[in-house]
Design goal:
Layout: E1 6-13, E2 16-23, H1 24-37, H2 41-51, H3 57-72, H4 75-80
Antiparallel strand pairs: 1-2
Helix pairs in contact: 1-3
Amino acid sequence: MTGSSLVSRNITLNGHRTSLRLERAIWEAVEEICTREATTVHELCTRIDGTRTERTLTAGVRVFVLQYFRAAATEQGHAAAGHGLRR
């Protein structure tokens, strides 16, 4: 396989432009979260940047995405999605 699997995008955090390199699947998850939460990528990344404990914003975004979808995978989140009880 040639080339990087990382995709670079420019974002603005509190009025400052920066770039993030994340896997395509992570960017897709970020976009899905933004749609669900009625926010922009810039606003979401600013929020993540202000609360992250990870060393880098890139790691903070990855952890946020993981935690967001893990919360949806709880019994309550699973039922709320209309999937019923897990067996």
